[in-house]
Each structure stands twice: as C-alpha cells, then as structure tokens.
Amino acid sequence: MISGEYFTIDVLQLSDAPSLSKMMVENRSRFQRFFPYTLAQNLTPAASEEYIQRKKKQNTERTEFTWTIRDKKTTKIAGLIILKELDWKRGVGELAYCIGQKFEGLGWVTRTVETITKYAFSELRLRTLQIITHKTNIGSIRVAEKCGFQWQKKLVKSYTAPDGIALDMELYERYTDPEASGR
Q1: Is the pTM of this model over 0.85?
Q2: How far is the C-alpha of 90 from the C-alpha of 128, rounded, in Å?
Q3: Contact status, residue 9 vs residue 112, Cβ threshold 8 Å
Q4: Beta partners for 79?
Q5: Sign of the CA dihedral 118, 122, 124, 128?
Q6: Helix axis angle, 17-26 to 45-61, nearest 10°
Q7: In three state form, how does the secondary structure of 164-181 look?
Q8: Measured between alpha carbons, how far is 81 from 65 in angstroms, rounded to an integer?
Q9: Beta bridge partners of residue 77, listed in sequence order
Q10: Residue limits of the N-acetyltransferase domain (predicted)?
C-alpha cells in the first residue's frame, strides 16, 4: 500500500466489492464507452467479488495488476489503475485508469500513474509503458503528458466502442531509457 495525503493506492481485497461496485455503477455513464468490460464486471457487489478474485489471481500469475485508488478519509474506492497487456519478453505494459467523477481534477490519477510507473520500471523491470486514450479524453491526455509519456502515433480504428463504432486511439509511451524513444 502507498499512502498520500488524501488517497492511497492498494491492491484489491474481497471486502472492497461493495465499494467497487458502487463506484462503477455511480459512474456508469462515465465508464461505459472506454471502460465497458470493467464496468460490466462490477454492476453488483457479488459480480465485483468475482472480479476481485480474478484480479488477485492475475496479480499472482503476473499477467495483469490492478490497484485501487482509495479516498483516505472514507476508505471508499475512488478509482482503479490497471497494468495490463504485459509482454515480459519485450518489457512492455499498458496502463489503464479510471476515477469517479467526484474525484476528478484532484491530481490523484496523475500521482497514481507516477507511482505505478516507478514501480513498473524499478520492481517489475518493464522498459516501456503505454497509455492508449481517445483524443476527446483530455484528462487522460493531461495525465499522460504530466507523467512524462510522449505521444507516439495514432492507432487507426484500434478500439471498437460498445456501440460498434471503430475509433482511432492515441498511443503515448514512456521508456526507462529516454534514448529508446522513437524506436
């Protein structure tokens, strides 16, 4: 667990299921377009328990890591950060994150991304981290840029939204070795 002044970053626990489900459902309209699978798996506390069990297994197997961003005052889940699409041979992983609307703009996601980036580079020995976002997600773009991720390219029709429309996404990357950029 990592603790900041107003929030903590922690692994998911089964006891988080009600809080996780509530946060996801309360922010359904916010998450349904770009976080639909996580949302769909957390619509009830029972579904969140299953989700958490899967995430704990993935963490143990080192196939994916999921952490909570928790309001320190209430201990309720404010958001998630996920390190996924891990390619251990190439040393690459992708960061995905979401935050509840009432916690937006507080800098929690930026500080969380900075923390998990340091962890991924120093402890997991990854060499490249990616953030893939849509051009309309200005908050996510700001987080990526504030955390030292550089825009690399447009990923043409790389994401199909729940409405079936294929969208272009923007790829941002950060490297442990700054000389590695542009490869």
Answers
A1: yes
A2: 8
A3: yes
A4: 69, 99
A5: positive
A6: 110
A7: CCEEEEEEEEEECCHHHC
A8: 8
A9: 70
A10: 18-174
Per residue, the 3-state secondary structure of the chain, as one string, reads CEECCCEEEEECCHHHHHHHHHHHHHCHHHHCCCCHHHHHCCCCHHHHHHHHHHHHHHHHHCCCEEEEEEECCCCCEEEEEEEEEEECCCCEEEEEEEECHHHCCCCHHHHHHHHHHHHHHHCCCCCEEEEEECCCCHHHHHHHHHCCCEEEEEEEEEEECCCCCEEEEEEEEEECCHHHCCC
Nearest alpha carbon to residue 20 among 58, 75, 76? 76
End-to-end CA distance of the chain: 34
Question: If you search the block for the tokens 């199909």, which residue do you land on?
Answer: 160
Q: Which CATH class is domain 2-180?
A: alpha beta
Strand partners for 9: 2, 69
Q: Mind listing the pLDDT tens digit for each residue in 103-146?
A: 999 999 999 999 999 999 999 999 999 999 999 899 999 999 99
Q: What is the DSSP code (8-state) at residue 119?
A: H
pLDDT tens-place string over residues 34-58 = 899 999 999 999 999 999 999 999 9
